Amino acid sequence: MKVLMNAGPWLTVPPPGYGGIENVVATLVPALRERGVRVVLATVGSSDLEVDELISVFDDGQFGELQKPYNQVMGIAHAHQARIVAELRGRDDIDLVHDHLEVVGPAVLAAYGGPPVLHTLHWDLRKHPHFYGAFPSSIKVNGVSESQLARAPEALRAASLGAIHLATPLAGRRVEAERGEHLIVMGRVCGLKGQHVAARVCQKLGLPLVLAGPVSGRDSQAELDVVAQDPDHPLHGHPDVRYHLDQVAPYLDHDLVRWVGAVGGEERDRLYASARAALFPIQWDEPGGTAVVEALALGVPPVGLRRGCLPEIIDHGRTGFLADTEEELAEWLLRIDEIDPEECRAEARRRFSPSVMGERYLELYERILRGA
């Protein structure tokens, strides 16, 4: 089987730091290739994931361009997708396209026709009501959690082949790190992730907290200061920047509550693995929960609000705790030592390893091809 895997033009695969979809692709592709699937990866030229073929329009990731006005960047995704159509038109050995490019991907591929398409939904399905409300029937989709699909418009649910939970390469791999006392929130700093709630709770309880992740693409305090101190900077009024400055920064004391910026690679894994617990005070219905799966794989018990996919990932009282309110969240944090880290690791190996995700996607590909 030969699959064209469309990761989009935004970041390299794997990404240098934060990059949700690109990390998913970087986890899935090796598992598929181990099972004999040949992969043609559509991404940017500087990606270094080992694949059978790589196609691209842009040499480097275009994520930074997304900060510009829409009419200046709207052609980026379309240029990337036009390259994919040209590739499909010029060859007949692609059995299936696995698409991850939001809206533009399925819209262009449905108009073109070509090989069967599976489009994976990674985001909030309420974002594009006009498109999802009349989703093209020729495209099959899958979600990353059942709760995500439950909120999908009827036309999108009709095209759905079910949900496949995200995986992490950390499942089954030991990261050497001495367990510390700090709690951690890992991920992009924005209102949806609820870093201000974590900071408020930990400050009240006197528990050390580390916030790790970029703010609107700014990876360090120095980079963020440039934005904050310049009212004319294009990111000065960005919602994530305002959220950090107005709701998170007041809790930062560089002692009990710290923001360490974006971290990646082994440094990120060690920082995560050394945490006593991972906090997920999410303020929205999280569709995928990559960071939750990573916490389990590292033996770091997750504690979060009972929203979105978290109840599907966390077994309350066994592999973590779920709360309905901020007050409950604080109560469960005081009981975090009741969770066995080895139980968390075992759950990750059983449910969230790359081999599990690879097998499930291969089954889905075969199902689509039988139907085609």
TrEMBL record:
BP-aspect Gene Ontology terms: carbohydrate derivative biosynthetic process
Record's keyword terms, sorted: Glycosyltransferase, Transferase
GO molecular function, one term: glycosyltransferase activity
InterPro entries: Glyco_trans_1, Glyco_trans_4-like_N, Glycosyltransferase_grp1
Domain of life, per lineage: Bacteria
Residue ranges of every copy of the Glycosyl transferase family domain listed in the record: 181-337
Glycosyltransferase subfamily 4-like N-terminal domain residues: 18-131
One Pfam family matching this protein: Glycos_transf_1
Protein name: Glycosyltransferase involved in cell wall bisynthesis
Record organism: Nonomuraea wenchangensis
Classification of source organism: Bacteria, Bacillati, Actinomycetota, Actinomycetes, Streptosporangiales
